[in-house]
Specification:
CATH topology: Gyrase A, domain 2
GO molecular function: 4-alpha-hydroxytetrahydrobiopterin dehydratase activity
Number of strands: 4
CATH architecture: 2-Layer Sandwich
InterPro entries: PCD_sf (IPR036428), Pterin_deHydtase (IPR001533)
Keywords: Lyase
EC number: 4.2.1.96
Distance between the termini: 35 Å
Largest sheet: 4 strands, antiparallel
Strand content: 15-25%
Pfam family, one: Pterin_4a
Structural class: alpha+beta
Strand order of the largest sheet: 1-2-4-3
CATH class: Alpha Beta
CATH superfamily: Transcriptional coactivator/pterin dehydratase
Low-confidence stretches: none
Helix content: 40-55%
Length: 98
């Protein structure tokens, strides 16, 4: 079973995730990304879905036209875990490539 990050680990991880906000109530990280249009947003979500499926770690997210809102937390761990940080970094890499 994967364990949640402790305070020090969380702070160190968040230092490297400038575009993400910490949601203390859910012990999660969130990010909203705005794209040019729906097709671009959906294409991004498809890329993330493939990575998430391989990692067996899936985001909570929603898409409203050109906007994708993402929340990452590890339910089995009861909060933020290394899996969330890894997925956030992969998401950032996709956004940075566009």
């Amino acid at each position: 079973m994967i364990e949640a990050l402790n305070e020090v680990e969380r702070a160190e991880a968040l230092d490297g995730l400038d575009e993400w906000d910490y949601d203390e109530a859910r012990d999660a990280i969130t990010r909203t990304i705005v794209f040019a249009d729906f097709v671009e947003a959906f294409g991004f979500m498809t890329q993330v879905a493939l990575i998430a499926e391989r990692a067996n770690h899936h985001p909570e997210w929603k898409n409203i036209w050109n906007r994708v809102e993402i929340l990452l937390t590890t339910h089995d761990a009861g909060g933020l875990s290394p899996r969330d940080i890894e997925l956030a970094e992969a998401i950032d890499a996709i956004v940075d490539d566009d």
